[in-house]
Design goal:
The chain folds into two domains: 10-115, no CATH class; 127-370, Deoxyribonuclease I, Chain A. Helices cover 39% and strands 19% of the residues. It contains eleven helices and twelve strands. The strands form two sheets. The chain has a six-stranded mixed β-sheet. Strands 5-6-7-8-10-9 form a six-stranded mixed β-sheet. The chain is elongated, with a radius of gyration of 29 Å. The N and C termini lie far apart (103 Å).
Length: 374
């Protein structure tokens, strides 16, 4: 059978139905949905601004103001919204969001990306038979009285040379007894409070009176390591920290910035005038987005940047972690403990060392290899 011829009325009915369905498809969503969508997209765009604005300010101002020091310290966390906005933009096909998120994403990769490159692609070549030295730096916390826990952590590290900060007299006495067999050589400057320093070593050490711009007695602490392949200068640093009370921030952070910069300038000057290999370790109380860090890095290599993986955050954590405004913060937010070295050696490995559970810092454990057998 042939289909019945379509009349004008039939065509009109079908055209009307088609037209009607087309109108239904293009109806606007409810106003509340439109408003919420607009607000979500607006918030997404605004969430990208802190990271981008920080980078512009950092390039222009560096660490020149106390408030920039604070912002620089937490800079990685300004990038947290970026991957969420990028994925959200891709899923909803909002290409403006995608393009906007690519800017801070590129900044993050530029600054922090090298820390996440697999070690196989950036590990230095170490000659077979080259001498090595394993170094541990650890701020044990002045109020930490658990000698056994600290000693166990140090022994578990297997380090050849151990640099301690905030070494109180009781801790120094206890560690001397516990570590005597493994570390027969030492140079200890114990103090009540926060300024004590100490070096425990498997190789002979010789105390030096070299001034390095610090404020305390022999802070930074300078010793000579009498290694079998030649003397090496070893510097143990503990810079001033940030005050715990907010009203003191403007004046105290400004003063601590000056102190850190004096130490950094002294290290830079010494490194350019030295006659022996140089290792500088300790609690610098500043992140790598600071002028003091950049100054030291002009002459010395940061071992974690060489062979560490990830952010390598060492502070704050544990039961003695600071609680600003009475609020506990997530653990291990910042990297402020470092092992720097001169060009005679390279870092073979860099890891977070064994932690005793009582300090608000985690130790840094680095193995250094000399370029060739002397």
């Amino acid at each position: 059978m042939y289909p019945a011829p379509m009349t004008v009325a039939t065509r009109a009915t079908r055209d009307g139905a088609a037209e009607g369905s087309h109108v239904v498809d293009r109806r606007r969503r409810p106003f509340l949905v439109e408003l919420l969508t607009f607000l979500v997209v607006l918030i997404a765009y605004l969430s990208l601004l802190p990271a981008t604005a920080w980078f512009a300010a950092y390039r222009q101002l560096g660490n020149s103001h106390w408030w920039m020091f604070v912002i620089n310290s937490v800079a990685p966390y300004l990038f947290l919204p970026v991957p969420l906005v990028l994925v959200g933009g891709l899923l909803t096909r909002r290409w403006g969001l995608v393009l906007a998120s690519l800017v801070p994403a590129a900044v993050f990769v530029l600054i922090f990306g090298p820390l996440f490159v697999p070690l196989g692609y950036r590990a230095p070549v170490i000659q077979e038979g080259a001498p090595t030295l394993t170094v541990l730096t650890y701020n044990v916390h002045a109020l930490n009285e658990d000698v056994d826990a600290v000693a166990d952590a140090i022994l578990a590290s297997g380090a050849d040379v151990v640099a301690l900060q905030e070494l109180e007299r009781g801790m120094a006495t206890g560690l001397t007894q516990r570590l005597a067999e493994r570390y027969p050589y030492r140079d200890l400057i114990p103090e009540a409070g926060w300024s004590g320093l100490g070096v425990f070593s498997t190789v002979p050490v010789r105390a030096e009176q070299q001034r390095m711009g610090g404020t305390g007695r022999r802070n930074p602490q300078v010793v000579t390591l009498e290694l079998p392949w030649g003397d090496t200068t070893f510097v143990n640093v503990h810079n001033l920290s940030i005050p715990r009370t907010l009203p003191d921030w403007p004046s105290e952070i400004t003063a601590s910035l000056r102190q850190r910069q004096r130490v950094a300038d002294a290290i830079l000057t010494f490194s350019r005038q030295r006659s022996a290999p140089l290792i500088v370790v300790g609690d610098f109380n500043t992140t790598e987005r600071s002028t003091a860090y950049e100054t030291v890095s002009l002459a010395l290599a940061d071992s974690w940047r060489e062979v560490g993986f990830g952010f390598g955050h060492t502070f704050p954590g544990g039961p003695r972690s600071p609680t600003p405004f009475g609020v506990s913060v997530p653990p291990w937010l910042l990297r402020i403990d470092y092992v720097f070295h001169s060009s005679e050696m390279v870092a073979a490995s860099a890891d977070i060392g064994p932690w005793d559970g009582g300090s608000d810092h985690r130790p840094v454990l680095v193995t250094l290899a000399w370029h060739e057998q002397p």
